[in-house]
């Protein structure tokens, strides 16, 4: 390796990729924006290649940047794993589990699994981090997370990542009780009225955004008149209860609301939106004993939920 490349260069580069912008990276690293830009410029000059393009939306890795990122992140991950292994051999090492979870998977099986894990491992800290898939998968690759719970990503995004399925679920179109669409479902004007609604849908860079669009197409909505984009279930739920918006949501995020009558489901075809939800881990490093224990609890909870759904006749898992 070129001895001109320092740890600060690699740290800055990885943080820019993780944060999605130079400004955000500078904030996280507690340096000025100009210092972060200068460090990145030094790195690009040393390796004689442009690593990323800057635009108003943030940064986009070039082909050279993608290659450099894969190798650097793997190297840094290996270094962190070595340090973690040393730390685990120390008697005073803090034992904990850090889990990344996509918002659509946060409410269904994780709370019960964490409760069971805590009962078996009292005093063991568990940290649950939410975010979009790109952010969580980058954190997983660099060793900041033990594993990630969410939908199976595209093949190109799963290089170096193992996936273990927990369950399958579809999306649902839900509205507040008493919504005008609920009385139109058996009438011809339902389709026309549906197309005029405001839809609450996942952000553009999320895995389930394409599934949400497929659901709308299957429901006859080829062009959406108005949207609110979010991955926050609490916001989406509150917004739908206050307005006539239609929330396109993962079944796991609204199952409790539908069962209790807080929200109502529209009769739309969601078969094309069914996807696998599971645990993503780094292929090479595997899991620590504690992380493996929590993953096992997740498997058990998911299995229990599948059986309950089959008994009750709800084939959403």
Automatic annotation (TrEMBL):
Transcription regulation found in the keyword field: yes
Q: Which UniProt keywords apply?
A: DNA-binding, Transcription, Transcription regulation
Give yes or no: UniProt keyword rRNA processing. no
A GO MF term: DNA-binding transcription factor activity
Q: Where is the HTH lysR-type domain?
A: 5-62
Q: Name one GO biological process term.
A: 3,4-dihydroxybenzoate catabolic process
Listed GO CC annotations: cytosol
Short name of one Pfam family for this protein?
A: HTH_1
- Family per similarity comment: Belongs to the LysR transcriptional regulatory family.
Name assigned to this protein: Pca operon transcription factor PcaQ
């Amino acid at each position: 390796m070129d001895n001109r490349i320092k740890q600060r260069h690699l740290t800055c580069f990885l943080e820019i990729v993780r944060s999605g912008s130079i400004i955000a990276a500078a904030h996280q690293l507690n340096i000025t924006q100009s210092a972060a830009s200068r460090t990145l410029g030094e790195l690009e000059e040393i390796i004689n290649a442009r690593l990323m393009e800057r635009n108003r939306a943030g940064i986009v890795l070039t082909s050279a940047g993608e290659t450099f990122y894969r190798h650097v992140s793997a190297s840094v991950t290996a270094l962190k794993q070595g340090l973690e292994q040393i730390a685990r051999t120390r008697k005073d090492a803090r034992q904990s589990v850090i889990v990344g979870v996509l918002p659509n998977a946060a409410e269904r099986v994780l709370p019960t699994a964490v409760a069971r894990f805590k009962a078996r491992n009292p005093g063991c800290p568990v940290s649950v981090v939410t975010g979009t898939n790109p952010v969580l998968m980058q954190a997983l690759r660099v060793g900041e997370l033990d594993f990630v719970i969410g939908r199976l990503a595209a093949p190109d995004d799963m290089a170096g990542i193992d996936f273990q399925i927990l369950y399958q679920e579809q999306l649902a179109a839900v509205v507040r009780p008493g919504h005008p669409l609920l009385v139109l479902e058996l009438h011809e004007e339902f389709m026309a009225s549906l197309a005029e609604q405001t839809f609450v849908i996942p952000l553009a860079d999320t895995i389930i955004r394409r599934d949400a669009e497929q659901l709308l197409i299957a429901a006859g909505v080829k062009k959406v008149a108005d949207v609110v984009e979010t991955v926050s279930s609490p916001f989406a739920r509150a917004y739908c209860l206050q307005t006539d918006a239609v929330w396109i949501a993962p079944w796991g995020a609204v199952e409790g609301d539908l069962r209790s009558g807080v929200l109502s489901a529209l009769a739309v075809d969601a078969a094309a939106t069914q996807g696998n939800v599971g645990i993503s881990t780094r292929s090479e490093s595997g899991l620590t004993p504690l992380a493996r224990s929590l993953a096992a609890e997740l498997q058990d909870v998911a299995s229990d939920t599948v059986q309950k759904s089959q008994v009750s006749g709800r084939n959403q898992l």
